[in-house]
Structure formats: structure tokens, C-alpha cells
Amino acid sequence: MAGKLQFSLVSPEREVFSGLVDQVDAPGVEGDFGVLAAHAPFMTALREDVVTVIDGSARRQFDVQGGFADVTPAGLTILAEQASEVVAA
Q1: Which CA distances in Å does 83 have to 11, 25, 50, 71?
Q2: CA–CA separation, 79 vs 9, rounded Å?
Q3: Are strands 49-55 and 23-28 parallel, antiparallel or unpaired?
Q4: How much is the average pLDDT of 17-39?
Q5: What is the pLDDT of residues 33-61, one digit of tens each?
Q6: pLDDT at 81 over 60
Q7: Cβ(22)–Cβ(54) below 8 Å
Q8: What is the Rg, in whole angstroms, of the alpha carbon atoms belonging to the chain?
Q9: CB–CB of 71/39 below 8 Å?
């Protein structure tokens, strides 16, 4: 197993999430994608939808309103135009 992925979700107002996780699924403009630790580097624009953060059996979801995802050897950073955590009802 490749280990943990460093993930940061940032909006113009604040850092919404930062931590080590197992996987992040995000809505790219050319299709949804998942990122694990040691993923090949790439950058893509995001469309409005939900980013899912998976760590073990825990899942957190965040609404994003566009932005960019940048995968580097250091991890994944999402710079979102707007982002907020989805609260379960």
C-alpha cells in the first residue's frame, strides 16, 4: 500500500480541510477522478459537485463551486471558488 495522501481544500475565505487521508474523489471538468498517495502529477479544472474524502471507513463530503485541483508529489491541493462541508441531516 502506498500510504497516506496529504490533502488540502482551500477556498478564498479559509482552509476548509487539511490532513492525511487514504483517497480523494473529485469532479473534474473532463470527468470524475480519484487520487491516492503517490499519484502521477496533474492539474485540472473542477466543475460544481461534491469532493469526497475517504480515510479508513470515514467519509466526509464537501460541496465545491468550481476551482482547480493540483496533484504533486507532495499531495493534492484543491483551490475552490467556494467550498463547504456537506452536513448529514
Answers
A1: 6, 15, 9, 18
A2: 6
A3: antiparallel
A4: 96
A5: 999 999 999 999 999 999 999 999 999 99
A6: yes
A7: yes
A8: 12
A9: yes
Query: Quick one: pLDDT band at residue 89, thresholds 50, 70, 90?
Result: low
Written as nine digits, the cell of 65 is: 463551486
Distance CA 25, CA 35 (A): 6
SS (H, E, C) 19-67: EEECEEEEEECCEEEEECCCCCCEEEEECCEEEEEEECCEEEEEEECCE
Asked whether the beta carbons of 84 and 68 are under 8 A apart, the reply is no
Q: Grid coordinates in use for 26? A: 473529485
- pLDDT reading at 18 higher than 80: yes
pTM: 0.93
Task: State the Cα–Cα distance between residues 64 and 86, nearest whole angstrom.
Answer: 10
Rounded Cα distance between 11 and 9, Å, is 7
